[in-house]
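Format notes (please read before filing issues)

Several people have asked whether sequences and structure tokens are stored in separate files. They are not. Every record keeps both together, in the order shown below: the sequence lines, then the token lines. Line labels are part of the format and must not be stripped during preprocessing.
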Amino acid sequence: MKDYLCTVRGYIYEPKLGDPDSGIKPGTSFEELPQDWECPDCGSPKEDFEELE
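Then the structure lines:
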């Protein structure tokens, strides 16, 4: 699973960590995140994230 970068604030979503504060369990891929999930740092939508190589 790849990490994704918020292009607004630089937050990196790491699937291995998930987003426990938002109820997202470790091991949840970016694609599996709910469509309304937002960046925990700035509230940007998933559309503002890009895949990291």
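For reference, the curators noted about this record: Strands lie at 4-6, 12-13, 49-51. The radius of gyration is 10 Å.
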